[in-house]
Amino acid sequence: MIVITNPSAISGEISIIDSLFEEGLSLLHIRKPDFSEIEMAQFIHQIKIEFRSKLVLHNHHELAEDFGITRIHFSEKDRKNGCEYPARFLKPCRYTTSIHSIEDFNALDNDFEYAFLSPVFKSISKEDYYPKENLFAALKSRTNHSTKCIALGGIYSENIKKTLINGFDDVALLGTIWDNENPVKQFKLCQQIAHSYLV
Questions:
Q1: pTM for this prediction
Q2: From CA 139, how far away is CA 141, in angstroms rounded?
Q3: CB–CB of 3/21 below 8 Å?
Q4: Is the Cβ–Cβ distance between 95 and 111 less than 8 Å?
Q5: What per-residue confidence (pLDDT) applies to 80?
Q6: Range 161-172 average pLDDT
Q7: What pLDDT sits at residue 199?
Q8: Average pLDDT rounded to a whole number, residues 104-121
Q9: What is the Cα–Cα distance from 74 to 72, expressed in whole angstroms?
Q10: Which residues pair with 94 in a beta bridge?
Q11: Which residue, 90, 54, 57, 52, is CA-closest to 74?
């Protein structure tokens, strides 16, 4: 199970992040689109060093090497524009990306370990962001099995089971964590459900 940071800063965020990792979070995507390079560096610096290998950078990729981060995420726009394409990174890195249709997912090359396919449900964190098609039905047309397909958008405890039994390889959480009054407790609940279907 994957967690994506809230786009804007949240009170006590670093402490929550450390707690999520201590509870078994496997990967945290750092998506802070409005952060400057300096703000991003300061943010990463506050996260405990033992968790750096579990961080995935969405922007300011040039900071990865300085912090020993080996996971890079490319937005759909960056991927389609060939911006900072994986070949640019010389050291061994793992790459992920974002997708909004099964056709684009099937067309991905083998550079990408997994891709977020979204939105699966009505988004929790973005207003008026709904699925344009039934992605469970679309997933039946999947031909790309070398890249993991991760469900994103409107995922919370009550629909994780449905998501996983309908063909997604894993789920990514954003709104259900950061809009909750107890993010760590909510994470543990979602993690327990996900683990029961991923083993």
A1: 0.93
A2: 5
A3: no
A4: yes
A5: 80
A6: 96
A7: 63
A8: 94
A9: 7
A10: 71
A11: 57
